[in-house]
Amino acid sequence: MKKLALVVLVLLCAALPAGAKDLGGMWGVGFSKGFAPEGSGLSSVAVRYWVDRQLAVEVLGGFRLVDVDNGPDERFYNLGGRFLIKIVEEDNLHVYGGGGLAWLRQRSRGDSDNGVAVEAFAGVEYFFQGLPHLGFTSEVGLGLSDVGDRTSFGTNGESFVNLGLRYYF
What we know:
Mean pLDDT: 81
Low-confidence stretches: 1-20
Shape: elongated
Distance between the termini: 37 Å
Radius of gyration: 17 Å
Structural class: mainly beta
Strand content: over 45%
Strand order of the largest sheet: 1-2-3-4-5-6-7-9
Number of strands: 9
Number of helices: 1
Order of helices and strands: HEEEEEEEEE
């Protein structure tokens, strides 16, 4: 049943006409799964600013607190910055690429570790007609994180596709 609902939602979204707009000078606030260390399940609040039609900067920050029954609580934090360069501008979407750097903190099993993460990605941002200020994003990319004695390399945001949502002012 869930698969059928997802298929219907995708078909409805594809059937709606869309129109992108010039985002130069606009602020977008929303969420993203960027800079999520492996196993953290961390989402981030994201603030994106389009400097002009082609260049954007973004700040992400997030935390996740996990209550463990038989042990100390686990805590994950991130704070990072990204840059985006628009590669293609279509009527209904923007295609962009970029990179980022973040500070990570993890407290697990009583130990606290700090580290860094870097990522490179490509993504699309889509605007539906009738919702000109709401941007839906999908990104793919690679990330490298080094926290304590653990280094991991893989897809950014803990999954193959990183989804996000932003409202532009």
